[in-house]
Amino acid sequence: MTTVQARTRMESLRNEILEHDRLYYVEARPRISDRDYDKLIDELRDLEAQFPDLITSDSPTQRVAGEPTKLFPPAEHHVPMLSLANTYSTDEVAAFAKRVHDALEHEPSEGYTCELKFDGVAMSLRYANGRLIRGATRGDGVTGDDVTANVRTIKSIPLKIVSDSKSAQSEFEVRGEVFMDIKGFQRLNEQREAMGEPPFANARNSTAGTLKTLDPREVVKRPLRFMAYQLLFHDIEFEEDSSLNTHSKRLDLLREFGFPVSKETMVVKDVKEIMDFVMYWQEKRDTLPFEIDGVVIKVNSSDEWVRMGAVAKSPRWAIAFKFETKQAKTRLLGITLQVGRMGTITPVAELEPVGLTGITIRRATLHNADEIDRKDFRIGDMVIIERGGEVIPKVVGVDIAQRHDDSKPFHFPHKCPECASELIRPPDEVSWYCENAECPAQIIGRITHFAARGAMDIAGLGDQSVAQFAEAGLLHSIADVYDLPSKRAELIELPRMGEKKADNLIAGIEASKQRPVSRFLFGLGIRHVGTSVAKLLIDEFGSIDAIAEASEEAIDEVPSIGPEIAASIFAYFRLRRNQDLLHRLRQLGLPFKGEKKPRVLGGAPAALGGFFAGKTFVLTGTLDAMTRDEAKEKIESLGGKVSGSVSKKTNFVVAGAEVGSKLDKANELGVKVLNEEAFLKELTA
Fold it and tell me: E strand or H helix at 281, and its extent?
């Protein structure tokens, strides 16, 4: 193929793929199968490999490009990103309408637009010559963070505008909301639980944290979406174009440009129609596939926006009507323990059924033992439940006035409800765990984790297949995976299997025996042992046997591994059932030996300076932006050290949600505490 032919074909492929992205992510009406889409991507990648000089920045293959950044540069907004004043009643909406009338000296000429208020993170996107050149957060309204590399990973954001409109080639700005829809957020939490990581509390915080992640390769794994709600032109010719003098017309142009714009937006003429829209969506919000927390009301004429201006940090021409809190009161009938897929024990409230936001609530999370003690939840209490940005309802309070005189405090059990094994609670952690790898409640999660891409990478052993094989009595532990090749006849008889699928699965199982030993170690599902920790351990000790024989102190001495991780690893290899499992896996041919490598101390030396250099940090609670392992890696890469316990030598405690006793210890010793927002700010400073 000549260079001219390649350029023509690559341009055609890029446009075709971008069109399919729009159909899938914006209009939700895909025209081709995932397999056919992947073929187009693969062909484009092959051509770009052959003709690297022809790669363009707006190519679909370049959504994730480059190495992780060390910081987010400041991004000044051409027009300040103002926050909206909130209202909560019809009277306040009427007062807003009166202020509009008084400012204009007449009713708004084009009425008002009513839009759903997405529960996400505000984003500014700048385009020039039809191409995305910058993505920036709101920040303080005047200056935000340049997160271009991260927003490029969001497939509902066009990298290139394909439109015949002359305005598409001008310099313009699109403002909107980055968010996660409900199903995407649920899938994300399911994946985290399968990997032994705590679920995120709610979609909005998870979105905000994801946009602050320094590595776009991690951002692309999160189900971020975008919804546009404002178009601004930096070119005065288009900003004053009479054909674009209303907000609703500009939204139509955004749709033409290929941006997702809410279909629920409506133009109305007065307060009654505004409130009809508000009340309708307050009742119907739970029918939507995403979370909203109110309605945004704007004067429709963009010319009148200019005339009205702004006050303080809010525009005069728009307000947000915030919905009432989603709470209800009901009786706590009991507390049961739910065993997570990787052994985490979560207390669940069994409730007297109550209606809340269109659904009947019978169960809600109680988070952990400390939360039960702190709020003194007792069986028989009248409790307050909430369902806000969270998908799963939670118990947030108790009505002490309605408590029975004979009520008794709840004592957290110390036996696993599924296998009766003793539960363990590591020092300074809030969760209890069942560490029996063959606990019936954990079989599917542990085997799915073992077979995942980052571990043994066994195609055909996903959640559904593992559940099917377990139900058929073919899987009871990780080791049983390697007995499946001898049970080919039984596999073939299972629904949706057949000879070809069975043979592919068997081939994948046999191939997995050649994976690096660090991936095998990660696949065992030892608490706190992620892929990077597993590799560090093998590099240090050379084999799983050497790790198993090492003392807790020797493990703790490995750079980047603190007391908390060392204690977890040491405890795992002391349990007889884990020893038996490893013995069986050895007999089945799994890799136990790796290559011991000379110790290399990574991370930035303290001499380089910076906030983290030479300081000791302790992590507690759940972070929305990243896992603890990821936070640990970031601190160490900047010259800091992470410890598992708080002492006088600790410089900072980083506190996420649902913190444990480490926070109390920090306050007792006078150690400075950083919340997640402050921690992220220092990371990106």
Answer: helix 271-284
Same domain, 208 and 176: yes
Q: Quote the percentage of the chain above a pLDDT of 90.
A: 47
Per-residue confidence (pLDDT) for residue 685, from 0 to 100: 62
Least confident residue range of 111-125, 220-234, 607-621: 607-621
Mean pLDDT of 632-659: 80
Neighbours of 31 (CB within 10 A): 11
Q: Which of 512, 537, 560 is the last residue of a domain?
A: 512
- Beta strand pairing call for 359-365 and 143-145: unpaired
φ, ψ for residue 500, nearest 5 deg: -65, -45
Same domain, 269 and 307: yes
Give the model confidence (pLDDT) of 418-452 as tens digits. Answer: 899 999 887 767 889 888 877 888 888 889 989 98
Same-domain check for residues 117 and 264: yes
Structure tokens at 461: 């052993």
Distances from the Cα of 214 to the Cαs of 48, 625, 628, in angstroms? 26, 10, 15
Which of 377, 402, 427 is the last residue in one of the domains? 402
**What total of structural domains would you count in the chain?**
6
Judgement on whether residues 308 and 182 belong to the same structural domain of the protein: yes
Domain span holding position 370: 327-402
Give, for 382, the enclosing helix (H) or strand (E).
strand 382-386
* Shared-domain flag, residues 466 and 565: no
Q: Are 121 and 183 members of one domain?
A: yes
Q: Is the dihedral of CA 242, 243, 248, 252 positive or negative?
A: negative
Each residue's pLDDT tens digit, 33-50:
877 887 898 899 889 889
Catalytic residues: 117
Q: Please, are residues 581 and 478 in contact by the beta-carbon 8 Å criterion?
A: yes
Which structure tokens are listed for 347? Answer: 């207390």
Q: Comparing C-alpha atoms, which of 645, 456, 631, 671 is closest to residue 566?
A: 645
User: Closest by alpha carbon to 427, among 567, 623, 551?
Assistant: 567
Closest residue by Cα to residue 293 from 314, 317, 321: 321
Q: Is 138 within a domain?
A: yes
Q: For the beta carbon of residue 363, count every other beta carbon within 10 angstroms.
A: 14
The encoded tokens of residue 667 equal 């306050």
Those residues whose C-beta lies under 8 Å from the C-beta of residue 102, and which sit 6 or more positions away, are none
pLDDT band at 478 (very low <50, low <70, confident <90, very high): very high
Same domain, 238 and 377: no
311 and 230 inside one domain:
yes
3-state secondary structure 374-436: HHCCCCCCEEEEECCCCCCCEEEEECHHHCCCCCCCCCCCCECCCCCCECECCCCCCCEECCC
- The 3-class secondary structure across 486-513, one letter per residue, is HHHHHHHCCCCCHHHHHHHHHHHHHHHC
